[in-house]
Amino acid sequence: MEAMDKVEIVAQYLAGEMTSEEQVRFLEELAQDQALQEELSLQQDFAIALKNERNKALKSELLAYAEQKAGSNYSWYYGIAAGVSIVIVGLMAFLYLSGSSSNEALFSANFEPYPYVFTTRLSGNGSAASEAYKNGDFSTAIQLFEKQPMSDTVQFYLGIAYAQTGNLESASARLEQIAPSSIFIPQKNWYLGLIYLQSGDKEGAIAMFSKITEKDYKFIEAQALLGQLEN
Amino acid sequence: MSEIDISELKASLRRDNEALRDIFDACSAYCMKSLMKYHNCSRSDANDLFIDALLIFRDKILDDQLEYLTNPRQYLLGVCIVLNKKRLRLQGNQNKLGLVFTSDDLVASSYEEQVIDREISYEQQRKVMHSFKQLGDACREILTLFYVDHFSMKEIAHKMSFASSDVVKTKKMRCLKKWREIFRENNGSNG
Hints:
The complex is a heterodimer.
Chain A: H1 3-14, H2 20-32, H3 34-70, H4 75-82, H5 86-97, H6 103-110, H7 126-134, H8 138-145, H9 152-164, H10 168-176, H11 185-198, H12 202-210, H13 219-230
Helix pairs in contact in A: 1-3, 6-11, 7-8, 8-9, 9-10, 10-11, 11-12, 12-13
Chain B: H1 6-15, H2 18-38, H3 43-62, H4 72-97, H5 103-116, H6 122-132, H7 137-147, H8 153-160, H9 165-187
Helix pairs in contact in B: 2-3, 2-4, 3-4, 3-5, 4-5, 6-9, 7-9, 8-9
């Protein structure tokens, strides 16, 4: 890559304008090309710095707004409020009305199949099982995964596939068998929490979400769900 | 519970800051009350945490990092709790090590973890912005619209009265390269 090309290619990558094939080629090249790594780092810093600057200004505005609101004279506020568009009013009504939730809604809003990132080679019809999972054919994936030797990763994907087909009992049974040393433990805690939630076991769900630590998969979402379940 | 229409929320947040203030009005009392009652925060800390959480929430919506949202108040409270834990941990480290962190350190550190998962030092922030301010008005506007406000080329063309999105694309690249050149000049090749 020429020096100028690198600038454009990195910009294209960061803007999400590459096809998946181009992304793969870019990442392969990135691993070997120090100049490309430096360019990526520079452009990332550029985007972050711009965003930080905007957020600094927004924070000052919001702090001033909070201070004004805390004051005794609210007359200016009503003037602004009157000018808020119908779309915004509708949106905020929506926000207010969304104050309560059912476990089922929380489950469906949060559950999505874990991406297939299985790197261990499977025996026999293992590749057919992984293809079925990747294609969203979870019933076939279950049949084929069940014939595999039971490793933690097979148990994990089986659990997700069972949950996806609505068989929560088998899903939780599979996920509960994952060993504490498995790399899938944070993911297990998230999915098992959702499954317990859907099954009406609120305490079980809280226990699972509470195990998800700051660096883990879905930490923010778990904190938000805990906020919803505990209050 | 129905999901919030994220695309509508995103459009409102991009339009102006009214939507942000509306969310502030709808959610601040609930989050601050919870932070003060259950998480040992003073009113001032709770206010600060809530505003930081609101900005993280805004970034997540604008960056398309939030695919679903059922309850913004609870989501914001979740982010506030994360920020509070981070704040307490940093304060603990500060006490142990005798180091002094500013409130900006706390915010930046939280951003690194929750939003951008990448570190940028204050020195680098200063260098980037110093070079950025040396660009012309049009370049600054194009780059801000693209990188901060997430406008498409077509939207930028419309807003800035360019003939087409292709013109904006070329102009944006020229501006980025110009910034890069100024940055290198100001800071040497290792900038």
